[in-house]
Structures are given as C-alpha cells and as structure tokens.
Amino acid sequence: MREANESTEIQEIADHLDFGLSIVFIGFNPSIRSGQVGHHYANPRNNFWRILHSSGLTPRLYQASEDGELLKLGYGFTNIVARPTKGAEDITREEYAEGRTILRAKLEKYRPGVACFVGKGVYTEYSRKSQVEWGFQENPVVEGIHEFVAPSSSGLVRMPMSEIVDIYKKLNAFVTGISTPE
C-alpha cells in the first residue's frame, strides 16, 4: 500500500548542473523509484550514496533527497537518457542516439573537470567505444574534460563493494589533487 504523500506519477528528473563543477556523475537513466520521488539514485538497492561516502568523495552519507546539496561540493548529476525505466534494457536505440547528442551539448556547455560515467555501458553508449577500462579514458569525446569510467552503483552489480569503492577512491584522489589521471 502506498503512502498518501508518495506520488505514483513517473517523471524525468531535473539535472543538477552548473558551471565550475569538479565532477558530473552520468548514469544510464533514472530508475522508476527516482522518477517517482524526483531524486537521483533513489532506489534503496542502489549503492551510489554509500559508494560516494566510502570513497571519501562526500564527507558524510547523503540521502537521495539531498542530491541537490552536492552542487555545494562541486558535484552534478545527469543521465544519458532522461526517461525513467525499470532497467537500462528498456532504453531504445533512438533514445541513446538523442541522449548522446544532448549529453555532449551539456558537457560542452558546463565543462566540468571530470565527467564520471556510472557504468561502462553508459560510457560505451556515449563514446561509441567498444572496449573501455575502469578509470580515466584517453581521447575524450569533449576535449579538455577528463572522462572517468566507474562501476555502476546498482545493487545488481556482482563486483565486490570494496573493489567498486577503490575505483571511486581514484576519482577522489584526482579531484582532491592527490593524483593525476593515469
């Protein structure tokens, strides 16, 4: 049974973008839960907020409802496709094609220090590269923006959490000036 204040309408989620951001996190698209509540990474089975905190990217554990607060930390959010779905398998080829163009325009406009793709699949759809490794990528699509590929934060990912966090720690080391892209 649904709580009275919980919306059943599923909507696109507003991007959290601004000029001068250190990182823009880019997902496939919002989950149904995110579309219902209007916040990024809102599915309780998604580990995104725990990963950010465990990797040192955030000073405390944030909740999805606080996603707009991360702009103050220099972090933004967008997706390659805006339409919420149950899973990435529900995204059409046409949506990806349109999303690539829109995402590139956003990155060219806002020019974050790092475009962090939350999942290899997100990056391969954006870049059209067939093989990518975790971490910083060579030959960025938008010149002057570091492209970083991190594991998906979905609860369905079978990679050990410690390995996922270690990859995000490399991103933290870069944005805090401890390391440079390899």
Automatic annotation (TrEMBL):
The keyword Hydrolase applies. Residues 18-162 form the Uracil-DNA glycosylase-like domain. Keywords: DNA damage, DNA repair, Hydrolase. This is Uracil-DNA glycosylase-like domain-containing protein.
